[in-house]
Each structure stands twice: as structure tokens, then as C-alpha cells.
């Protein structure tokens, strides 16, 4: 559900929070000092850090600064007993925190904040993808430097993280209300995106469908023809043809499919929009033979 690093030198508070988070399904490791936290973060891929400001060996704000520089995509949630933290700490460093939680903690607030941080972290790191230039004009915020595909990931502050997470949720919501089925597959033919219509047309949950590859739902898939079609798409020519899908329960049904090639972060992705046809009689021998590009 999420790997969390909990940094707190108070054993009572730390163990209570550890037990609660584990009961909620999170995987949690503890670090009682700043030194331990930095060491652990360098050897383990955490999704979220809960960082107490009052540590015995270093100021937690300094640790926040170090973590944000070493792991710019890692959300850090500050834990503090001081309500005046925003007034006393350096704003430039404080803005690197994903959120602030004041002791004594409200358990539900802790859980909800972690879930928001996990969503933002996933949005930034899934498939090692960076927001491409073509979408930067549509983002709900502006970064201080241009976003480039081949550079290291950029870091976001709390407000930008939350707005990005909301933006990603909005895009998923919008695609889920498109009546046509939309599939995106990576270079290994594994699906990395599917909207609600795509899932419903095949009878899979989104999680199940994203674990599949094109041949799993395409009974007429042919690797040789697939690569020929990729060549056509590489030259900027979209493809539209009829094909067949196989649902989870084994049903096969005819579809019309339109495929485009997306070149993103040095890799090619196939994006297909499909529409179910009324009868298998609509398929011709020629079109069925080309049914191996994306979700066919």
C-alpha cells in the first residue's frame, strides 16, 4: 500500500504511530535520528517520509532540506509540536515539505495526508515518466524551469504536489467518461493505461487489465505484423481497421480500432481508441489479419 519511513526519536509516539499505520496496511520502517533517516533513504525506495522536526542529532528542517535535494520526488510530511513553525523556519526550505501535522496527531488526518502524498508520488514517478513538454501548457501550475524529457525529475512543493494529484485525478475522471474504450501500451506491449470503458468492455478491473499485454486480449495478434504496423505509425500515419477483442470470460467480439503512436521520454507507446461493432460479419479477412497492434 506504500513504503513509509517514520523518523521520530520518541519511542512511545513512534511505536503508537507505527502500530496504527501497519494496521492500516502501510509498510513502515522507523529511524530515531537524522543520521539513520538519511542512511535509510539512500538504500531503500520509500514512497513517503514522516519526519519529526525535533530530532536529537539535527534539526528536522535541515533533514527536510537534505532529503528534498537527494530525493526531489519523495514527499516529506513534517511532524511538529510547534504551531508557529511556518513563522520561524526558512520558507524556502519549509515549502519543500508536502504537508505539516501538529502533535497530538489526529489519526484520520495522518492517514488521509499519507494517502494524498502516495497519490502525488505515484503521479510523479510511475513508469519513470516526467511530464512531457507537450502537456506543460495545460498543467495547473507553472514550474520555475522548463520541463525537459531527458533531464532529471523536478521537485514540487506542497501546493504543486496537491494540484498535480488533483490534475491527474481529473484526467482519469475525464477519460472514464469518454464512451469509447481507450488503451495505452508500452514498448513491451503491456498496458499502462485503460479507461473505464476499456475495462467494462472486457470485463476486467483496471488493476487486472494493467497486468495484461496486448496478446492477452487480442486473439489475432501477430508479432511480425505488429512491427510492420509500428513502422507505419512511426512515419506519422495513423491506422484504423476492424479487429477482434477477447473478454475475460472468453467472449470474442468485433471492434473498430484507431491507433496512434506516442513518443514519450525516449520510448514509443501505442494509443488505441476502440468501438465495439454490432456483428462479426463486419470483419473482412484482410482487416482481421492486421489485428495485432494495440488492444485489438
Description:
With 296 residues, the protein is α/β, with parallel strands linked by helices. The chain folds into 2 domains: 3-127, Rossmann fold; 179-288, Beta-Lactamase (2-Layer Sandwich), CATH 3.30.450. Helix content is 39%, strand content 22%. The protein has 13 helices and 10 strands. The strands form 2 sheets. Strands 2-1-3-4-5 form a 5-stranded parallel beta sheet, sandwiched between helices. The radius of gyration is 23 Å and the shape is elongated. The two termini are 32 Å apart. The model is unreliable at 127-154 and 283-296 (pLDDT under 50).
Please write out the topology.
Elements: E1 3-7, H1 11-23, E2 27-31, H2 34-43, E3 48-52, H3 60-70, E4 76-80, H4 85-88, H5 91-94, E5 99-102, H6 107-125, H7 133-136, H8 158-176, E6 181-185, E7 191-194, H9 196-202, H10 206-209, H11 214-217, H12 223-234, E8 239-246, E9 252-264, E10 267-276, H13 285-288
Helix pairs in contact: 2-3, 6-8
Percentage beta strand: 15-25%
Order of helices and strands: EHEHEHEHHEHHHEEHHHHEEEH
Give the total of beta strands: 10
Biggest sheet features:
5 strands, parallel
Overall geometry comes to elongated
The CATH superfamily label of the largest domain reads Response regulator
Structural class: alpha/beta
Number of helices: 13
